[in-house]
Write a structure and sequence with these properties.
By secondary structure, the chain is of the alpha/beta class. It is about 40% helix and about 15% strand.
Length: about 500
């Protein structure tokens, strides 16, 4: 494991000190009585306390930040999991709370635990810097640095409050500070690593250490605050296991279920969209939506080949999974065109996007143009056609003068995962399901590919594209069975002598 060198630590320290400390001036004209009254007022309102003492560069807190702090402050004995997305300040917010609890003498010993002692030391650095260099904290609570007890991985304030870093490969049993106090804040931050999560034995080892060695440092008779800061980066990881025991599991993703930013004071919809579009679907889901994806667990790398001329396809089916609402939200809408060529199924074109119903209807006209004069069946699940979507189709057809002959899929569908896997996985594994090579760089086809590879049992990954593909293939099978060659008989035409 890479060691944290003195040079690296000093570089991190300099960067933090330069960017975060001494940004707020101290009012030197304030007397002791005025300072005491101000401090009492601030301490009664933690949000005001954070705003006064810490960096003014931070955005205003979101509702979930305020609610989380309220739980921490009001519950001395508390166990919380913070599965907050990247860019939602879970580590920074937690630091504010721990320093507040320490300086107001509600907590006395913070044990910060990470995947290694180096990582824990890096995470402890901002605490040390704030206590050592923050002029407003020093002005109101006094100099915190204590001679001989002020190192990178462990330091004790003049009032006797201790901060200690620990790695999950260390030995924290029996941890006590100078005042014979056991840890009353157990802070776990990024204890899971991508490498460890690939090995179930490593997860078992780390979790057993957490339960036995780390949790064992607390006192039974004293209130203890336990916080896990970390995302769900794997189906099985320490954060997931901790959820079973927590008083509160606080999962906050980068956007809510309607697609709106969960921290709008900091992250705009435009910025979120720009950042996420530069990452793969699997990476986005893991880092920003607490949805780890085991890629290729059902469908490995999707197969591509050039499409045949359209007149060589027995049937063409355009199938749409419209999601649920006519507004942009986290659900994807998917429209795919699939053709039956001999015993193969070719996905000729695909539209998969988080978009509006109007845009989705427009896809159908693009499909109609793509098909040209060839016959094509257009399907959508019947339940959606009974709602407002069909009205939107009618309005568009009146405006364009072209009608999409869309029909409802009236079948009673089985459970989605089983339905998609049982129909499409055998076709894929037996080289009977192909994507159009000419569309490989198209965004819709790329998103469809990503959703197939991310498809897995128990996953929360979006599967609207595979669902639409399953519908198209099922309909093609229905059409081919209905109109198979064995069902067609040819008879000699008899010349009629009857006149009309």
């Amino acid at each position: 494991m890479q060691q944290l060198t003195d040079k690296q630590y000093l570089s991190d320290w300099d960067n933090y000190a330069l960017n975060q400390i001494n940004k707020k001036p101290v009012d030197k004209s304030e007397n002791a009585i005025q300072r005491k009254k101000r401090m009492e007022k601030l301490e009664a309102k933690p949000e005001d306390w954070f705003k006064y003492y810490f960096s003014e560069d931070n955005a205003e807190p979101a509702a979930f930040h305020i609610a989380a702090t309220k739980r921490i402050i009001e519950n001395p004995e508390w166990y919380e999991i913070r599965m907050w997305s990247r860019e939602l300040a879970k580590t920074t917010r937690t630091m504010y709370e721990v320093i507040y609890l320490t300086l107001t003498k509600k907590k006395r010993f913070t044990l910060l635990i990470s995947s290694s002692i180096d990582n824990a030391t890096r995470l402890l650095l901002p605490y040390k810097a704030e206590l050592e260099l923050n002029d407003r904290l020093k002005n109101d609570y006094g100099t915190q640095e204590r001679q001989g007890k002020w190192t990178a991985s462990e330091f004790t304030t003049r009032s006797g409050a201790t901060f200690r870093a620990a790695g999950s490969d260390g030995a924290p049993r029996g941890a006590k500070n100078d005042q014979n106090v056991r840890p009353d804040v157990l802070l776990f931050d990024d204890v899971d690593t991508d490498i460890d999560c690939r090995n179930p034995k490593m997860i078992d080892k780390t979790w057993n250490w957490i339960e036995d060695a780390a949790m064992g440092t607390r006192s039974i008779s004293k209130d203890t605050l336990i916080i896990f800061c970390g995302n769900r980066i794997a189906i099985d990881c320490c954060v997931v296991r901790a959820c079973k025991y927590a008083d509160k599991v606080d999962e906050v993703n980068i956007t809510d279920k309607k697609g709106n930013p969960t921290w709008p004071q900091k992250n705009s919809p435009e910025h979120i969209k720009r950042v996420l579009k530069k990452r793969s679907y699997a990476s986005t889901q893991k880092e920003y939506y607490n949805n780890p994806i085991v890629e290729g667990s059902v469908f490995r790398k999707m197969a591509y080949k050039p499409a045949a001329p359209l007149n060589q396809y027995t049937h063409l089916v355009c199938y749409t999974d419209p999601s649920f609402k006519s507004t942009i939200k986290n659900d994807y809408k998917a429209t795919v065109l699939v053709g039956k060529w001999r015993d193969e199924y070719h996905v000729l074109k695909a539209f998969v996007d988080q978009t509006t119903t109007a845009k989705m209807i427009g896809w159908h006209y693009e499909m109609m143009d793509y098909v040209g004069g060839r016959s094509c069946y257009y399907y959508m699940e019947q339940v959606f056609l009974q709602e407002l979507i069909i009205q939107e189709f009618y309005k568009t057809s009146e405006q364009t003068g072209r009608t999409i002959p869309i029909m409802g899929d009236k079948r009673a569908k089985d459970e989605k995962f089983t339905r998609i896997e049982s129909l499409l996985e055998p076709l894929h594994s037996n080289a009977k399901l192909f994507f159009n090579e000419d569309e490989k760089k198209d965004p819709g086809m790329q998103k469809l590919d990503e959703q197939f590879v991310a498809f897995a049992p128990g996953s929360r990954a979006h599967d609207d594209g595979p669902d639409a593909t399953e519908g198209a293939v099922w309909m093609l099978n229905t059409k081919c069975n209905t109109f198979s060659a064995s069902d067609i008989s040819f008879t000699k035409k008899v010349k009629s002598h009857k006149r009309f």
